[in-house]
Amino acid sequence: MKQRILVIGTGFAGLWGALSAARQLDLQARDDIEVCVVAPKAELHVRPRFYEADVARMNASLDELFAVVGVRFVQGWVSSIDSVSQTVTYRDRHQAEQQLTYSRLILASGSQVNRPALNGIEHAFDVDSLQHAIDLERHLHGLSTLPDSPARNTVVVAGGGFTGIETATELPARLRAILGDGADIRVIVVDRGERIGASLGAQVAPIVAEASAQQGVTWRLGSSVSAVDAGGVTLASGERIDALTVIWTVGVHASPLTAQLPAERDAQGRLHVDRTLKVNGLNNLYAAGDTTFAAVDDHGNHAMMTCQHAIALGRSAGNNAAADLLGVAPIAYSQPKYVTCLDLGEWGALFTEGWERKVVLTGAEGKQLKMQINTGWIYPPAAVRETALAAADPLIPVVA
Fold first, then answer.
1. If we measure between CA atoms, which residue out of 291, 270, 274, 292 comes closest to residue 283?
2. Which domains are present in the chain?
3. SS3 at position 69
4. Which residues have CB under 8 Å from 317's CB, separation 6+?
5. How do beta strands 225-229 and 232-235 pair?
6. Which of 235, 213, 205 is nearest to 223 (CA)?
7. What is the distance between the alpha carbons of residues 357 and 38, in angstroms, rounded to a whole number?
8. Residue 98 bridge partners (DSSP)
9. Angle in degrees, 0-180, between the axes of helices 205-215 and 162-179, rounded to the nearest 10
10. Along the 400 residues of the chain, how does pLDDT read in single tens digits?
């Protein structure tokens, strides 16, 4: 029976992990080891774009790509990992329980938005998954069938981090397109910070404040949502905001699968790994993307839960899982270059470089770069074997 490199997930880390493992096997001219991916669909869901309109089109089929590079896809929903027997249990499309064994495993099952045990949280939308973002878009379009009212025209975004800011600043234009230019639209961000965009640094914060003000996005600072219901939210201060739309963007946590492993995790559930991305204490298991607490340099910086880090983590994990199986020297994961490109709706976008987030581009110039990233750079490579394998080289820098 063939040895198997098993990848869980088809997000950015899973996709690039599979391609990079296939690349390493191709370099060594080995066809006796299988690269297999298990996930609900052979699709990359372009999660960084879920705050935008027309979200249903923000996926990319991977069937042809996997076929040309020789990666086997198994449709399934993984329920458990046994690191001792090296077995993964999953449900197939008929809900039957199945198992796959592995020689090396790459856990790239991503993360989920935190949904706390808050009264009425079921009334809140999010943009964490493709289906949830589609549900939100349908809801927004459905508002046009309701009578004009302050609650209909108001959206509360809980959380003023990266996702909250991008979602909030995109909403005024989306709502005008749905409700008409005459609607009195209100978008309110509720955030624990003491100033707008505080979590993104001193240089970024005033730019976020300017873009928010120009688009009519207001903030409730130093506050949090204490309850949600079908008609709005109640803040910790006791203030009531009537809103038919509440969007939850407060924090993310690594896939629950990480909790099944006898390994050290950080506060977000991410697995501690060595510089080759092997999970500490588990010889045959690698982690990539949002499941991974990995050092990106020698200065104390660690990978963020972003696609720019997931792509490089996937490439390194895939390469090293294959190299380990083949007895080839691994590479040390390193990603010292860190950038951000924050969409700010019709105002434009903001591009920064470095962990101190030095502002490089703003407004229309930033928006042009953001569009290049969102519509090109983060999508899978062409389904051409040589092109796809070359693109999976772990030494290629990632700047998206």
1. 274
2. 3-112+252-337+387-391 (3.50.50.60), 115-248 (3.50.50.60)
3. helix
4. 13, 17, 20, 106, 108, 277, 286, 287, 288, 292, 333
5. antiparallel
6. 235
7. 36
8. 90
9. 10
10. 689 999 999 999 999 999 999 999 999 999 999 999 999 999 999 999 999 999 999 999 999 999 999 999 999 999 999 999 999 999 999 999 999 999 999 999 999 999 999 999 999 999 999 999 999 999 999 999 999 999 999 999 999 999 999 999 999 999 999 999 999 999 999 999 999 998 898 899 999 999 999 999 999 999 999 999 999 999 999 999 999 999 999 989 999 999 999 999 999 999 999 999 999 999 999 999 999 999 999 999 999 999 999 999 999 999 999 999 999 999 999 999 999 999 999 999 999 999 999 999 999 999 999 999 999 999 999 999 999 999 999 998 875 5
Q: Which residues contact 56 (CB under 8 A, 6 or more apart)?
A: 130, 134, 137
Cβ–Cβ contacts within 10 Å for residue 96, how many? 9
Structure tokens at 391: 């693109």
DSSP letter for 337, please.
-
Smallest Cα–Cα separation from 201: which of 355, 341, 347, 55?
355
Q: Which of 339, 318, 308 is CA-nearest to residue 276? A: 318
Q: What is the dihedral of CA 111, 117, 122, 123, to 10 degrees?
A: -110
Q: b/e map of 206-237 (b: 16 or more CB within 10 Å)?
A: ebbeebbeebebebbeebbbeebeeebbbbee
Alpha carbon of 321 to those of 73, 237, 279, 316: distances in Å? 18, 51, 11, 8
- Output DSSP code: residue 209: H
- Residue 5: closest CA among 384, 328, 367, 285: 285
Q: Which of 315, 291, 317, 311 is nearest to 379 (CA)?
A: 311
135 and 246 Cβ atoms separated by less than 8 Å: no
Phi, psi of 322 (to 5 degrees): -70, -45
* Strand-strand pairing, 186-190 and 217-220: parallel
Contact 231, 124 (CB under 8 A): no
Cβ atoms < 10 Å from Cβ of 164: 23
Contact (CB, 8 A) for 363 and 347: yes
* Residue 187 one-letter amino acid: V
